[in-house]
Amino acid sequence: MADKNPSDLRAERTSVRLDDVDRKILSLLQSDASLSLDQIAERVGASKTPVWNRIRKLRDAGVILRQVAILDPDALGLEACFFVLVRTSEHDKDWATRFLQALRDRPEVIEAHRLAGDIDYILKVQVRNARAYDRFYQSLIGEVKIHNVTALLSMEEIKATSALPIP
């Protein structure tokens, strides 16, 4: 499942009804996916087997997509975060396929969104420095035609979380 596009995964999912125990399990896993089954069961006030069955059900339903380690970009020397606004004059399927593949092939693109409005796409690009961003930019425009690109350097990360609000 980890190799699939998140949009494809969302399309495959069916709606799941969550109860309070499911919500507690999801909250615990979002804050620390390394918790043992024993720890989760203790914290939600249930035994291991029903908790395991709930987690399996949530995975099978596509609510839990994957479990990952969140790394510190500064510790890895990736100190520059750019938000890249992309406008294109191309809107045909062939261009979109090439553009999306170019984004998927570049590990420095850690998020990419197609937008409504004047800007077509926004990318979050994590690199070592401005020179590394320029290499990324030159490579991207060498591969696909882009009408306009605006890069915004993040001066300070104020909030970053992978935790979703659970309804």
UniProtKB/TrEMBL annotation:
GO terms for biological process: regulation of DNA-templated transcription; response to amino acid. CDD domains: HTH_ARSR (cd00090). InterPro entries: ArsR-like_HTH, AsnC-type_HTH_dom, Dimeric_a/b-barrel, Tscrpt_reg_AsnC-like, Tscrpt_reg_AsnC/Lrp_C, WH-like_DNA-bd_sf, WH_DNA-bd_sf. GO terms for molecular function: sequence-specific DNA binding. SMART domains: HTH_ASNC (SM00344). It holds the Pfam family AsnC_trans_reg. Residues 18-79 form the HTH asnC-type domain. Gene3D superfamilies: 3.30.70.920, Winged helix-like DNA-binding domain superfamily/Winged helix DNA-binding domain. Keywords: DNA-binding, Transcription, Transcription regulation. It comes from the Bacteria. SUPFAM superfamilies: Dimeric alpha+beta barrel (SSF54909), Winged helix' DNA-binding domain (SSF46785). GO terms for cellular component: cytosol. PANTHER family: DNA-BINDING TRANSCRIPTIONAL ACTIVATOR DECR, LEUCINE-RESPONSIVE REGULATORY PROTEIN. This is Transcriptional regulator, AsnC family.
